């Protein structure tokens, strides 16, 4: 049999009549199909298939020959496999304490003398690991300084003339931090382009620069990459492969077969160096890392197809120990993880929740909603399971609205249309006229707490999960003479098409500036809990209300407790809670899940099997509060 390549198609000619049916089946399994009216089988070429064929035919005693073009591909793949094995050995030895001390000293000297920001010890170790493995993952906890690590490695490779472009794909909220950290870490402002937002046709022009028009730093979102992936490929080709391609917050591409993930995988081969960054690499399953390492090593994935199938089977049979071992053996040498305990931060102070009594109308409304939910609960057995789950989630959100801002009850909730109050009832009239009747007790307490911090020349971030509440707080504090600003879902991210509107980056930069006079930032965790650092000048965070989403909660905690300031300054957290309400259940539930997650975080390679990365705990809360069921 002769094996050849034509127009990126792999062809097996003159299939031997001696091939057994099971061997033909194996070819079919690898994607080969029979060419009609011929003795040929063909499939689209991918670099991994040729070594498989070679190994399979050799073991089976099947005669074959490779054409010259096939042999070139096979040689390249074998070299890639050998390189991958060498790099895994480097990574494994390094993590076990065996490495070339001279090489490390040279790298360390470079970061000391050529990088403006001195790396912390844990950052230097992570940077050298990434330098050794070339295409690696940094799974360090949020707040550990992953961006500085990547920028230091990029600078080392740039001076070695191995790369000249840093291309970052991530959520739009990371754009500002990347630009700022570039300047702080490398001591120069980047020549950057943002390839996201605005008009796609106008954006297209940015991809076709040459020579001096090529920027040093490119920033794009997952959605823009999906829309522009062919243009991105052309841009990366123009750079001659000298691109350091970084996927920030890489847990966004964990979904196998997802459109964002597929777009990232398509551009991987056009970069000379690749890296993924996430503090939560395996939110619910070991399968979540498959895409990450498919991206890092597109021509020779360290997790083979057979290993992926074995991991999947082990997880399906709840044999997580065996699945973990397979993962560690496959990718352990290729990722680095800094734990929270490695950061040497001053322990944060979690002040006891401020127990607040509701004002008259708040309490009356809360009791009316709570009692109606109890009445409705008795009739739920007549409804379908799916409908009951929707109703329970909606009812819990209504209770959360009650303890945040009463007028939120007038807002609709997606997938929930149940009316908890009669339209002509006295309670509805109170809700509609609430702002003229009283101020929320939390708001009154908040003003005193904020004023005390401002008088002591302290900056403070206030968190709430409802946009209506954020606007209420902003209006109230502003009228009281406190200079404050908002960051939430409607606040625009900087894009080339936005010139007049204030951006999140502008607000954030003003807030962290100690001379700006802006002392209060009001934000929601969904929009501001990720990628934004406040810890250099802000050491106080107030939680006006909470949700059951533990991931967003922990992300928000890390905004003021991270490397680069929290080694000296102590973070303080304050919680406003109404007595005898859902506030106590939310806080208690978050504390339990947070402690379990911190226990897991201290492990190098574990999955997060809790439901902390999705806001899906309302149904469970409903059972605790209204059906008398335990956690």
* Average pLDDT: 87
Helix-residue proportion = 40-55%
Contiguous runs where pLDDT drops below 50 for at least 5 residues? 496-501, 607-615
Number of helical stretches of at least 4 residues: 24
* Tally of structural domains: 4
Q: Major beta sheet, specifics?
A: 7 strands, parallel
N-to-C CA distance: 64 Å
**Within the largest sheet, what's the order of strands?**
8-9-7-10-11-6-12
Give the tally of β-strands: 19
Q: Which superfamily, in CATH terms, is the homologous superfamily of the largest domain? A: Tandem AAA-ATPase domain
Radius of gyration: 28 Å
Morphology: globular
CATH architecture of the largest domain: 3-Layer(aba) Sandwich
Which percent range describes the beta-strand content?
5-15%
CATH topology of the largest domain: the name is Rossmann fold
User: What's the CATH class label of the largest domain?
Assistant: Alpha Beta
What class would the helix/strand composition place it in? alpha/beta
